[in-house]
């Protein structure tokens, strides 16, 4: 239309119509207006095209096909470096898991906590030194989607812990382990799916609790820690008591600051059993390991389950107390020491069924790493638990407080602490 107006104006100039002077002046005004309007519209179109070209150039500068959907990073200040800067040369990161183990006796838990000695702090420092992560990722691990499978707390160890994280390829695990304390060991790094989360994709967790079998003796029985050997009937009583916890139960009495009506206190315990007693090499004290598998656990839950089990086995309260503790009434449940608690295994059955055989991802059953895991467990976890218990006798001292405990309903807000100050830091907190 605007081109037509321009042609009309040209024709009117070349072949002017012979009209009276007043009429010609009258026609010149609308023709001048049309010309101005056409020029203004054309300028607007030209400006629009210019803005479009500017946006297109900016987009080409900001994105590159080799690094699509990732914003352009500010190039170096050096002009030579700017000319040679290639976005495609940046390190490409993929979602992985770190399979690791650690003895937590001398640490304040797994989770990073400024000013305290934690497992995560040691791991992040070593990864930064070995250039697995950047300075920014070290300061803010969420940038690389850092997530642990379970948040073990003060003094709690892990034979198998899983961390999901974005990492570069071709990593030197042996080099990383050289910069880690001997109490912490990385067993493997495995590729996983882009949206994998070590915590939310976990189907179940298995914990173990190792303790001297003298804890199974009757409370009024005179026994020696060094010479006591649990008879078969005592082990059987332990097994029967542990079975009372299996299934879906309300564990509001086995954690802190949770109400009976809170949906999160209902947890599913798949199995709870005691393995055969054993005498560690170089000692005369008999130990036993209790193993528990469940979907997830709350703060203090496992230690309280072990604590109430020992109270029943030692004859301080009847088995019915356990069943009453699943009801609405508030009970003060004793909390066993944290020393013997170990995160033994993380389970990813559903993930393995869906992705384990797709040819791109590895199964997360950790069978290939079992020799490493068991060797590390024996050398740095089991031996440390035994040595520390024999030296500090934390379980024996705690057993002395059990008769002081009231196994009757308590008032809201009342908390029994016995002779020893309760450990408020918690333990197997997976939430």
Q: What is the first-to-last residue Cα distance?
A: 69 Å
Structural class estimated from helices and strands: alpha+beta
Residue windows where pLDDT falls under 50 for at least 5 positions: 8-20, 23-27, 63-74, 85-89, 414-431
Our estimate of the beta-strand percent is 15-25%
Count of strand segments: 11
Helix/strand order, N-terminal first: HHHEHHEEEHEEHEEEHHEHHHE
Q: How much is the average pLDDT? A: 84
Reported for the largest beta sheet, the result is: 9 strands, mixed
What oligomeric state do the depicted chains represent?
single chain
Instruction: Give the name of the CATH superfamily of the domain at 204-347 and 382-399.
Output: Pseudouridine synthase I, catalytic domain, C-terminal subdomain
CATH class placement of the domain at 204-347 and 382-399:
Alpha Beta
Radius of gyration (CA) equals 35 Å
By CATH, the architecture of the domain at 204-347 and 382-399 is named: 2-Layer Sandwich
What name does CATH use for the topology of the domain at 204-347 and 382-399? Alpha-Beta Plaits
State the helix count: 12
Shape: elongated
> Helix content range of the residues, please?
25-40%
Per-chain topology:
Elements: H1 2-14, H2 21-62, H3 79-84, E1 94-102, H4 119-129, H5 135-139, E2 147-148, E3 151-152, E4 157-167, H6 173-178, E5 184-191, E6 204-212, H7 232-243, E7 247-250, E8 266-274, E9 287-294, H8 301-313, H9 320-325, E10 341-347, H10 349-355, H11 370-392, H12 394-401, E11 428-429
Parallel strand pairs: 4-10
Antiparallel strand pairs: 1-4, 1-5, 2-4, 3-11, 6-9, 6-10, 7-8, 8-9
Helix pairs in contact: 1-2, 7-8
């Amino acid at each position: 239309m605007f081109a037509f107006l321009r042609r009309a104006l040209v024709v009117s100039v070349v072949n002017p119509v012979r009209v009276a002077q007043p009429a010609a002046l009258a026609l010149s005004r609308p023709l001048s207006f049309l010309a101005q309007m056409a020029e203004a519209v054309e300028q607007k179109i030209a400006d629009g095209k210019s803005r479009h070209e500017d946006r297109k150039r900016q987009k080409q500068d900001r994105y590159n096909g080799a690094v699509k959907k990732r914003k352009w990073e500010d190039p170096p200040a050096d002009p030579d470096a700017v000319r040679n800067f290639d976005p495609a040369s940046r390190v490409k990161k993929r979602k992985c898991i770190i399979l690791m183990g650690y003895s937590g006796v001398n640490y304040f838990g797994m989770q990073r906590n400024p000013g305290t000695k934690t497992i995560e702090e040691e791991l992040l420092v070593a990864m930064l030194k070995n250039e697995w992560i950047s300075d920014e990722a070290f300061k803010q691990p969420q940038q690389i989607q850092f997530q642990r499978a379970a948040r073990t707390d003060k003094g709690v160890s892990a034979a198998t812990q899983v961390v999901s994280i974005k990492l570069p390829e071709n990593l030197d695990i042996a080099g990383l382990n050289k910069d880690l304390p001997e109490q912490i060991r990385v067993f493997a790094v495995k590729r996983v799916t882009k949206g994998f989360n070590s915590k939310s994709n976990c189907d179940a967790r298995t914990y173990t609790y190792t303790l001297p079998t003298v804890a199974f003796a009757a409370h009024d029985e005179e026994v020696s820690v060094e010479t006591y050997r649990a008879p078969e009937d005592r082990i059987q009583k332990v097994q029967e008591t542990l079975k009372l916890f299996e299934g879906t139960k309300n564990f509001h009495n086995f954690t802190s600051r949770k109400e009976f009506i809170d949906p999160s206190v209902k947890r599913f315990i798949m199995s709870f059993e005691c393995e055969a007693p054993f005498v560690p090499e170089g000692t005369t004290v008999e130990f036993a390991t209790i193993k528990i598998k469940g979907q997830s656990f709350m703060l203090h839950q496992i230690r309280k389950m072990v604590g109430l089990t020992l109270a029943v086995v030692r004859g301080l309260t009847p088995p019915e107390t356990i069943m009453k503790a699943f009801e609405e009434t508030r009970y003060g449940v004793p909390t066993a020491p944290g020393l013997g608690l170990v995160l033994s295994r993380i389970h990813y059955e559903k993930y393995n069924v869906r992705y384990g055989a797709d040819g791109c991802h590895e199964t997360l059953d950790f069978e290939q790493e079992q020799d490493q895991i068991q060797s590390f467990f024996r050398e740095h976890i089991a031996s440390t638990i035994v040595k520390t218990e024999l030296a500090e006798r934390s379980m024996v001292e705690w057993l002395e407080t059990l008769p002081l405990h009231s196994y009757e309903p308590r008032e809201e807000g009342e908390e029994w602490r016995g002779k020893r100050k309760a450990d408020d830091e918690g333990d197997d907190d997976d939430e």
